[in-house]
Amino acid sequence: MTMRERLTNSLVCAFVALIAGGITLAVAAPKARGVMIAMLIIAAIAFVTVLVLKIVLSKQKDRIKILSYAGAAVVFAVAIFSVLIVNLGNQSMYHPHVDEEETAKLAEIAEKHTLGIEVEEVKTAGGIYSGWRYKATGKSASAKRPVLLYFCGNGETASRAVLRFIENEQWKKIAPGCDVICFDYPGYGKSTGVPREKSMKAMAAEAYKYASDLETTSGVIVMGYSIGTGIAVYTASQAETAPAGLILLAPYNSGYDLYNNALNIFHGPVKLLASYRMPVYKYAGKVKCPTLIVASDADEVVPIASSRKLFSEFSSANTDFVTVEGKLHNDLPVVEKVTSRAGEFVKSVT
Fold first, then answer.
1. Integer Cα distance of 132 and 183 in angstroms
2. pTM for this one?
3. Higher confidence at residue 29 or residue 268?
């Protein structure tokens, strides 16, 4: 058997093994199907490329053959690296899921009519956005009142967030006398679609319009936590009618800060591999309403330096920055200092 035949057989075996492995992984791990399909496509193109190079370069000098194969190897290595980074970035940035227990609990409360809990759904050409509305207690059905429109963190759903406003003693302090509305991001809860920057912005615009157009709405306060702060700033900056106020818990200056805090490689050309780029700083200067920013000096997910950079983009006369000491990212929202300050802010703008 000649060297060429051995090489060809090796390539065929490697390609078959890759296909078999890809099918096995796709069955065992459904979330990996996208990346496996991309990898198989790359492998197929690489296989064909090598066969073509063998034919084209059959009469060329060894140096030309080596350079050609090396160049092809670099191209495909870059392609594989890009696919892996994009996939890992998406997996770290988005966590679409359904909180079954919280959803069932809210549905039960809604059926009993003991609290003003309603399932809300907005149908658009881009998909269906589903969420919840928790009506202000002690208000008549037709009474005018403010609405707190909340945008979740990437590990939250609308069900979990709204239930926190109902059950958590700290969060009850934030929006007394307000309706609370929260929609799931695309792919989360019962909302359709795929969570990406563009789809999340579209959802946010529809959510704000929905909250503003309610007959009982006297004003809208926009609140965001973690990844939701970028969506909140974008919404406040784009709204035809400015919100009454904006609350940001653990905000970031741009999506790149979130990526680089987890894996510090998103610089230069690699920045093109980030699917959630969200230039929050560009929208901050367009926000006209009073703004409250809260950040922790011990936040391991959103560095406080990123929050401070964003703060510098707002009108300082219209924005307060509150620092919390020693609290991790997931602990920040339920700190008494945070919820009390947020509650005071809501009262001041309504």
1. 6
2. 0.82
3. 268
